[in-house]
Amino acid sequence: QVQLVESGGGLVQPGGSLRLSCAPSRSIFSLDAMGWYRQAPGKQRDSVAAITSGGSTNYRDSVKGRFTISRDNAKNTVYLQMNSLKPDDTAVYYCYAADGPRVYWGQGTQVTVSS
Predict the structure, then answer these.
(1) CB 85, CB 17: distance < 8 Å
(2) 111 phi, psi to nearest 5 deg
(3) What HEC string does the chain produce?
(4) For the residues 23-50, what does the mean pLDDT come to?
(5) Is pLDDT larger for residue 56 or for residue 3?
(6) In terms of DSSP bridges, do strands 10-12 and 109-113 run parallel, antiparallel, or are they unpaired?
(7) How far does CA 94 lie from the centroid of its chain?
(8) φ and ψ at 61, to 5 degrees?
């Protein structure tokens, strides 16, 4: 089983920035879509952003213009640059990577935006 390892979460003031990173624990030759979900307390886990192997991106409406997803295919690493953070962005963020029908998940990283 492949484990995705996340880093970059933490505590930040409103308006601040964080950059999340996610990479597999061992080498993988190729991955298809990669992206991020988040789950806030008492809420369902929702998709935040996704990026295809070709670089096409999608974002949920609430983060458009503030978050940027990118990937380094040579490293099979996906990033989430989060700017202008708001308290509503507080959640555990989970990265994922899809290889055909198979989906790998990260362990989750806490993002807390204080007010």
Answers:
(1) yes
(2) -115, 120
(3) CCCEEEECCEEECCCCCEEEEEEECCCCCCCCCEEEEEECCCCCEEEEEEECCCCCEEECHHHCCCEEEEEECCCCEEEEEECCCCHHHCEEEEEEEEECCEEEEECCEEEEECC
(4) 90
(5) 56
(6) parallel
(7) 6
(8) -60, -35
